[in-house]
Specification:
globular
Length: about 350
C-alpha cells in the first residue's frame, strides 16, 4: 500500500464528485500560441498568463469544475496580484493538476502512428509537481484509426507508457488521469471505433494491472465511441451513448474511481448531448461518468476575450456557461433549451 493511498483515494473521488468535471487547460505553449494567432492575440507569456487567470478566476467555476489540468508554465505562474495560481486554485476550491507527458511523437517503424514520450526523469518531475501543489496528473496517448492502423504494436507501446506513468504518479502522491485517445479524425464507422476503443482499453488495463496501479486511485479519460468526423452518416446521439457505455462496461474494471471523457473535436453541443445521454440512459454505471473538456469549455470564451482586458468579464460568463452545461450533462439534466437559458443568465 502506498504512503499516499488515503490521499489518492480522496482526491480521485473529489475529482469526479457529482455534478463536477475536470477542466483541461494544459495546452502546450505551442498549441496555445496557435489558437492565439488565429484570433490575432500576441503570443507572449503575459498573454498566456492573462488567459489562464481569466479561466481560473471565472465566478462560481468551482460549482461545476472540481480541478484543472495545468501546463508546466502555468503551474509556476501567478495572478496579477502576485498570488501563485496554485494558491488561487486552492483558495477557490479547485484541485491543481498537471500535464506530464512529453507529447505524441512518430512511432518508429510504424508510419502514421504515434507514441507518447516523457517517461525519462518523470519520477523527479512528479515529486516536484507534488511539492508545487499538484494533486493529480495527466498523460495522453494517441491512437489513430486508418488503413491497417492502429497496429497492435502501437496500442501496446502506448498502453505500457500509460501504465508506467500511472504507477510513478501513484508512488509519488498524484492521481493519474489515464488518457488513451482514439482520434475522431477520419471516416470510420461507429463499429470500427468501438472495435479500436475496446482493443485499446483492454490493453491499457492489462498493462495497468501489470504495473500494480490501484484502480480506485486513478481516473480514466477516454474518447467517446463515435463515427469519424468525415463519415457520411454520423451516428445519432443515443447510439454514441449506448455504444460508448457498453464498450466501457466490457473493458473498464468497476473499481476505477471515475470516467471523465475528453471532447476530442466534437462541438460544444455534441459533447454535452452525448455525455447527457449516457447519464440518462445508464444511471447506474459502476463509476461516475463526467467530463474533462478543453475546447468544449474554453474556446467560446477565448473567441470572446481576444486578448482584450475589457472582454474578461464577458468571456468568464461564457466559460461558466459552458461549464454549467456540461455539469448538467454529467447529471443527465442537460437540454438545448437549458443551454440557451444559461446563455442568458
Amino acid at each position: 500500500m502506498s504512503t499516499y493511498t488515503q490521499e489518492l483515494q480522496t482526491t480521485a473521488k473529489a475529482l469526479v464528485a457529482k455534478g463536477k468535471g475536470i477542466l483541461a487547460m494544459d495546452e502546450s505553449n505551442g498549441t496555445c500560441n496557435k489558437r492565439f494567432e488565429k484570433l490575432g492575440i500576441a503570443t507572449t507569456e503575459e498573454n498566456r498568463r492573462n488567459y489562464r487567470e481569466l479561466i481560473l478566476t471565472a465566478p462560481n467555476l468551482n460549482t461545476y469544475i472540481s480541478g484543472a489540468i495545468l501546463f508546466d508554465e502555468t503551474i509556476r505562474q501567478s495572478s496579477a496580484t502576485g498570488e501563485s495560481f496554485v494558491s488561487v486554485m486552492q483558495r477557490l476550491g479547485l484541485i491543481p493538476g498537471i500535464k506530464v507527458d512529453g507529447g505524441a511523437k512518430p512511432f518508429a517503424g510504424h508510419p502514421d502512428e504515434l507514441v507518447t514520450e516523457g517517461l525519462d526523469g518523470l519520477d523527479d518531475r512528479v515529486r516536484e509537481y507534488y511539492n508545487l501543489g499538484a494533486r493529480f496528473a495527466k498523460w495522453r496517448a494517441v491512437i489513430t484509426i486508418g488503413a491497417n492502423i492502429p497496429s497492435a504494436a502501437c496500442i501496446e507501446a502506448n498502453a505500457d507508457a500509460l501504465a508506467r506513468y500511472a504507477a510513478i504518479c501513484q508512488a509519488n502522491g498524484l492521481v493519474p488521469i489515464v488518457e488513451p485517445e482514439v482520434l475522431i479524425d477520419g471516416n470510420h464507422t461507429l463499429d470500427r471505433c468501438r472495435e479500436v476503443t475496446a482493443a485499446t482499453l483492454k490493453e491499457v488495463f492489462k498493462q495497468l494491472t501489470t504495473q500494480g496501479v490501484a484502480f480506485d486511485q486513478m481516473i480514466l479519460k477516454p474518447s467517446m465511441v463515435i463515427t469519424g468526423l468525415s463519415a457520411t452518416l454520423p451516428a445519432p446521439v443515443h447510439e454514441v451513448a449506448t455504444t460508448t457505455i457498453e464498450t466501457l462496461l466490457q473493458a473498464v474494471p468497476p473499481t476505477v474511481a471515475g470516467i471523465a471523457f475528453l471532447s476530442g473535436g466534437q462541438t460544444n453541443e455534441q459533447a454535452a448531448a452525448h455525455l447527457n445521454a449516457m447519464n440518462v440512459m445508464f444511471p447506474q454505471t459502476p463509476w461516475p461518468v463526467t467530463f474533462s473538456y478543453a475546447r468544449a469549455i474554453q474556446q467560446s470564451a477565448l473567441d470572446k476575450w481576444r486578448g482584450d482586458s475589457a472582454n474578461v468579464a464577458a468571456a468568464q460568463k461564457i466559460l461558466a456557461h459552458r461549464a454549467a452545461c456540461n455539469s448538467a450533462a454529467s447529471n443527465g439534466t442537460y437540454t438545448v433549451d437549458l443551454d440557451r437559458q444559461l446563455a442568458l443568465v
